[in-house]
Design brief:
Blueprint lengths: L4 E6 L2 E7 L13 E8 L7 E8 L16
Antiparallel strand pairs: 1-2, 1-3, 3-4
Length: about 70
């Protein structure tokens, strides 16, 4: 979803933030470790999805789903 806010948390603190592009994609750079990824749809719905991931010395893909409210 374009315009969703994505936050990368570690130990309860935000370590990176991004907004998805027109294709619904985002990129953040973080060191190896375990993180929680939180995606929040743009207003007014603010649907959210959360995933726990482990990052190693590689690229990690994460699929998140938020409701656009479009019917």
């Amino acid at each position: 979803m374009p315009g969703a806010t994505v936050e990368v948390d570690r130990g309860g603190s935000a370590v990176a933030k991004a907004v998805t592009d027109a294709s619904g994609r985002f990129v953040v750079y973080v060191p190896s470790g375990t993180y929680t990824i939180i995606a929040v749809a743009p207003s007014p719905l603010q649907s959210r999805d959360t995933k726990d991931i482990t990052v190693r010395l590689a690229t990690v893909s994460v699929d998140l789903t938020v409701d656009s409210g479009m019917r």
